[in-house]
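@channel sequence for tomorrow's demo:
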Amino acid sequence: MLDYEKLGAFYLGKVVDPATGKTGNEPLLYDSKDLTTHGVIVGMTGSGKTGLAIGLLEEAAIDGIPAIAIDPKGDLGNLLLQFPEMRAEDFRPWVDDGDPTRVAETWRQGLGDWGQEPARIAKMRAACDVVLYTPGLSGGAPLSVLRSLDPPAGGDGDPDTRRERIAGAAAGLLGLLGIDADPVRSREHILIARILDDAWGKGQGVDLGALVRAIQTPPFDRVGVLDLE
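structure tokens (generated this afternoon):
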């Protein structure tokens, strides 16, 4: 096995001789310190841009570096296909047409040719939790901004933390409506924050219907020292 297990060194494959096109044994390593600001992957269709991105994310995961991948195309879900033992039954749910035993053997041989042994796959799997969020679909974990309108678990907790959470929830909701609200001056932000504070103070959550009704008919007469009107 090639010696590339160094913290901060991302293994991307092996060096290819440009003259002969043959793959050598020297590993191609990328210094993760070069990704501290921005990066971009460019190339023609089918040149391997997505494969490179997945490789970078896997190497980051092994080093304990978290990532949030926004994937409109739907390719990065392949990161969940982590099967250290390469058993045919692991692949069966994902093989629509073909022999899962043959698929497992192809993966085992292909990954082995690039030094990706089962132990390294298991290391990556143990290093991180991979979650696939699918807003509006049931294929993965659901995602809803309205969950942020539920009261904090375990009661009020620290008042400052509660105020910050209320401000964040109000700003996030207004952001979805295209409103860039100032928490101090925006009437919309102040009203929604006050509604959340009132509901959470009673240990109640707020769904969309309850929020609309509370905006139309607020359950309080004052905001601070001022009358609601």
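heads up for whoever presents: The first strand starts at residue 9 and ends at 16.
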